[in-house]
Fold this protein.
Amino acid sequence: MSLFRQTRWKGIRLVMALVLMLGLIFPGSAMAAKDWEGHWAEGVIEAWLELGLVSGYEDGSIQPNKSISRAEFMAFVNRAFNFTEKTSAQFKDVSSSDWYAEVVQKAVAAGYIAGYPEGTMKPNNNITRMEAAAILARITGISANEGATRKFTDQGQIPQWSKGVVGAVAQSSLMVCYPDGSFMPAKEITRAEAIAALNKARNILTTFDKAGTYGHASATQTYSGNVVVMVPGVTLQNMVIKGNLILDKGIGEGDVTLNNVTVEGDTFVRGGGANSIHINGGQYKNIFIEKQDGRVRIVATNAEGVRVVMEAPDIKGNEIILEGDFESVVVNTPEVKVTVQGETTIKNLEVTEKATATSINLNSGVKVEKAVLETKTSVTGQGTITEATGSGAKDSTYEKEPTIIKDEDQPTTPIIGGGGGGGTPALTVSKIRFILADKPEETTLEGLDNDTRVKGISFDINAEGTILTVTGIKLANGSTIGYDFTKKFADKAGEVTFSELLNKESISLGDLRGFFGNQFTIQGTLSRSGYRDYKDFEVELGEGGETYTNDWVSLTLDGDILKAKIKADQGNVLLKDIGILNFFNSTFNELPAKVKIRNTEYDVTTQAAAIKDALVEAADVSTWLEMKISDLVGMDLQMQRTGSTVWYTIEVIE
């Protein structure tokens, strides 16, 4: 060893000795204040310390179990998502000399908080779990989901205003319930809970906060979560966005360009001006216009399935300018002015009953194939409407008369959902069939062996262009599992594959029967413009032709001990790719009522998120996303059948 290394090592030992001495002499010093060690959130707190997202108190402590104020929570959010733009908004209880003055200005500019009606921010009040949920939902752009709150034991204590956001963060696993199945909406969120939730939000959200071009010049780049564009002058190219795309208010009156971008979720337009949002190619689902003031222009060329929806109350009095090719345009809020320019084609233009005092200007060269007007509407300009229908079509005024005007007393179904009525035709599903891996489609699965591989489900529908929205799956035992899935079918043969649902190319029929039982109901809606909705699908899996097996473990029952031997090459399979409920159900060929993890009980149908968290903690892995089947080896697991008091011990072995 060189003299330099010897001297350096002696120096290091001397420093270490001094550190230890100081720690003994001054036990309250910053060096000895790691109060997060051993805490359930230790890993994420350490990560945030390394990233500089949290610095702790003067004594070096984090105080993970302490409640967090609104100002402190805003500071966490701003650092986590790099919100730097400030607003000039003033609040009665925020002085320019307060440490949080700029924090509040950045938070308001980012648009995730606005203060109270009386002009206060209440920065020193501790923030509740439901208030934190509202901010998380706004930041990430996840959709409201009131139905997901039904799984909480205290769902009746969740105020109506917060049910949608609480359900949304629960469905997205940003926030989880407590071991007793409650959410505790009014409970003050702790610093550890806040850090954990925001860290999850960072992982599902990608932000672009500097002008420039993003994405490869030729190859396609995929983003698994939501994407937010926060500034003008951004071009996104050759991307697939699995979540939502949010064009935030920070864009102001500037432009954003989307070149060959596919958005599998929804697109929200909260910023942009008269030249605004340019869509060149790609595929889209819904584009919701939510800009609060002024004009916004959407130009769409060579893109598929572009559906523009105007339903936010904040856009009242605004002008929405459209140009290009649109599958449908829906106006569902009052006093909106829609201007359609250029050689634009709109297949379906819908003005709902809510959209009173709406005006539509169709410039020369514009073609609207069908206009469904459910309220009296002013239509100006020399654009062409082939057919006008709906309860308000006859009373509407036209500068250029439509080719056909149909007088209907009852409103037709809006494209954005809801029940239909009157003479509107109904959507029907004549057959529900299963797509098998090695055989033609079957009408029934009765008697098929459990090792039959199934690739997906197909629906025979009486109309093209329908949209399937699944909100839950009701099992034969009466329990319901919340679900969130939407897909548009181009033709009358709708098809949903398990690669879309479960991230698996195929699944054995035995696993399907084990997970769902022999019969289940897909809860949701099949909808299309001009048709009444079709709701809820009953699916028959039928009785199997042999003893049940599954893909991942071989099962043997010895009294109340169920031994699960991991099959060859299955130990590294990720539980997230199977689905936790699917894995647990495979052991009993039915949905268990409860599971125990390290002697803590969980209800299977209402506490799936809590079960995941408990497994992650028991396995001592960082996140659910990296947990493998082999991580269950040696774990203290038990299950209880529905209607039984017997607990079965699960021994997972390799």
Notes: The chain is about 20% helix and 30% strand. The first helix runs from residue 3 to 25. Residues 1-32, 409-423, 544-548 have pLDDT under 50 and may be disordered.
